[in-house]
Amino acid sequence: MESLEVLNFHPSKVMAHPRVLAWHDDLDHEVDMDPDFDEMDADDAVDAFWN
Predict the structure, then answer these.
(1) Which has fewest Cβ within 10 Å: 8, 17, 41, 48?
(2) In which domain of life is the source organism classified (predicted)?
């Protein structure tokens, strides 16, 4: 990942399905409501995915 390079990136070309956006909004709201929420770092997320 350290050598990953994205060429000709145009943010206007990135789209998300409305259901994904709604899920993300709900997730943000849940995090705001839970003071004990501890966000996972990238390495933890990869480990959780593969294990």
Answers:
(1) 8
(2) Eukaryota
